[in-house]
Each structure stands twice: as C-alpha cells, then as structure tokens.
Amino acid sequence: MSASIKVFAPATVANVVCGYDVLGFAVNEPGDEVIMKLTEGSGIRITKITGDEGRLPLDPQKNTVSASVQHYLNHIGKPDVGVEIELHKKMPIGSGLGSSSASTVAGLFAVNTLFDNLLTNKELVPFAMKGEELACGYGHADNVAPALLGGFVLIRSYQPLDIISLPHPDDLYAAIVYPEVDVPTKDARQMIRSKVLLKDAVTQWGNVAGLVSGLFMKDYDLIGRSMTDILVEPTRSILIPDFYKLRSLAMKTGATGFGISGSGPSVFALTKDEATARAITQKLQQHLKGIGINSLSFVSEVNKKGPVILD
Ligand code: HSE
C-alpha cells in the first residue's frame, strides 16, 4: 500500500456573533494542508508538522488530526491500519479561525478519501468534534461542520446532532483581521457565564432567528441588525485590543455586521462586496498598528466547497 493524498481544509468563522456554538461559515483562505499515506506498518505516525512553531504535539494520541483519524479507523473496523500524516499549518493557532478544526477536517477528509468515501462529509462531523474536544475540552461543531460542508451551517441540536446547511447571498464577503495576541479557545470558553437571564435569552434567540432569516431572504439589513451578541461578546471582547473602536471603524467603512470570530482574537465583518471588505481590513490593521499590535488579514467570499484534494 502506498496511496497518498494531499488535502486542504478551510478556516471558519464560528458563532457569527449571535449564534454561540450553533452557527458558522467557511472561508476560502486561510486553511491547513494534510498529506496522508497508507503504509504497510500498523498504527498512525505523525511524520512532520510545519508552520506551528513547535506548538503542536507529534504524539498521535494528543494530536487532534491523528486522534480523530483513529476514531474514524476504529469506526470502519480498521483500527490497526498504518497511516503516516504530515500536517502543514497555513494559519495561525489560537486565532479564532478554527485552526484545530481545519487540520482535523483535512485529516478526516484525507483518510475518508483513501477509504473510498465510506462516509459522507456530514457523517464525518462527529469524528471531527472529537478533535475539538481534545483541543479545547468541548466538542463544539460550529467550526468543523462548516469546514466539512462549506457555506453557512446551523447546528440545530447537539443531541442528537442535527446539522443544517443554510443559503447565503452570493455576493457576501468576509473581512477578517487577526490581531496577533493569543487567545486559547479553552480559556475563552471558561470565562463565559454559564447562566443567562430569560430576557437576555429572548434577545439572543430573536437575533439568531433574524440572522438565519436574513440569510434565506438575502436581506443585508436584517443580517446586519441581527449580528448582535449580548451573552458572550461583552466578556470576550475584553481580550481583544480596542474591540469597540474596531467595530466602529468597520461599521463606518460600510460593514453589514461586525463581531468576534469564534473565540477570538480575530474579528470579522460581513460586507456586500470585496472592495468594502478590503477597505475594512486596511482600516482595522492601520488602527492596530497605531496601538503597537501586528495583525494579519484575510478577505474571502463564503467558501462553498469545504475540504478539497490538492493532488
Ligand atoms: N463556538 C466556539 C466558541 C467556537 O465560541 O468557543 C470556537 O472557535
């Protein structure tokens, strides 16, 4: 056996402001690459990781890619198959862009392709959630589901898992800025209140329903006014340098809506066109530079494909 495959899986914006753990969408860049080979030996080996500055474990039980691939192999009744994995990180870790998700999804898509697509991408979601559980202590699906399926995704229920692909306006763009401060998802989850007032829940589910309706109706105003989060953002925004100033700059530059990407520190805006998205990233990066913070930016349409085979 020497079958080998190279796969790219995309970054994702989870929560989409109001939908903590239930909404997410994929972008075209950045993302991660996995090269996977089936071997004569037995067991999974991670032979190389690049782009992680030595931060990710090579131990197959601790690495999210190998751990979720092992769950997949157990499931298909081939727990001892020999697998070699190279992981090439092409995106920042701890950025709020679904970094662990992109790696895990690339690995699962690769192994499933090598085994003749025994499962659909949707059926791979629970295996990818195992990777998230290992990475941050909770198997949330709002990064891995859009990374696997592309587009906007709603996790209507976790038990049982019920994943719905949502439509979106064709010309929707995302402007993403990653201020280079590290916010591990595990810590960013622990700081959130676990109890909410009923009146706050009412506000929040009104916005979630509004955002989903806006996506269906291709109504930018409704999308924008629904991108409000009174439960999580007030706490997490503390970790992001000048968050409210960044919001005001983005909105003044024409953003439809603005907020924290996943658990941060990346922020994102949705826009009606590419030029507005580029103007927003430029303004936000300029502001961050002015307060001494380096940043990276990405402008992308909503990714429609999910993971793809590169060669
Ligand atoms: N829904 C998750 C969170 C996404 O906000 O913690 C993490 O990227």
From TrEMBL:
InterPro entries registered for this protein in UniProt: GHMP_kinase_C_dom (IPR013750), GHMP_kinase_C_sf (IPR036554), GHMP_kinase_N_dom (IPR006204), GHMP_knse_ATP-bd_CS (IPR006203), Homoserine_kinase (IPR000870), Ribosomal_Su5_D2-typ_SF (IPR020568), Ribsml_uS5_D2-typ_fold_subgr (IPR014721)
GO biological process terms held by the UniProt record: threonine biosynthetic process
Domain GHMP kinase C-terminal, chain residue ranges per copy: 218-289
Keyword ATP-binding applies: yes
ATP-binding recorded as keyword: yes
GHMP kinase N-terminal domain span: 63-151
Compartments where found: Cytoplasm
Pfam families hit by this protein: GHMP_kinases_C, GHMP_kinases_N
Alphabetical UniProt keywords: Amino-acid biosynthesis, ATP-binding, Cytoplasm, Kinase, Nucleotide-binding, Threonine biosynthesis, Transferase
Catalytic reaction list: L-homoserine + ATP = O-phospho-L-homoserine + ADP + H(+)
Recorded GO MF terms: ATP binding; homoserine kinase activity
Pathway: Amino-acid biosynthesis; L-threonine biosynthesis; L-threonine from L-aspartate: step 4/5
Chief location of this protein within or outside the cell: cytoplasm
One Gene Ontology cellular component: cytoplasm
EC number: 2.7.1.39
Gene3D superfamilies: 3.30.230.10, GHMP kinase, C-terminal domain (3.30.70.890)
Positions contributing to ATP binding: P92, I93, G94, S95, G96, L97, G98, S99, S100, S101, A102
Matching PANTHER family: HOMOSERINE KINASE (PTHR20861:SF1), HOMOSERINE/4-DIPHOSPHOCYTIDYL-2-C-METHYL-D-ERYTHRITOL KINASE (PTHR20861)
Family, similarity comment: Belongs to the GHMP kinase family. Homoserine kinase subfamily.
Role, per record: Catalyzes the ATP-dependent phosphorylation of L-homoserine to L-homoserine phosphate.
Descriptive protein name: Homoserine kinase
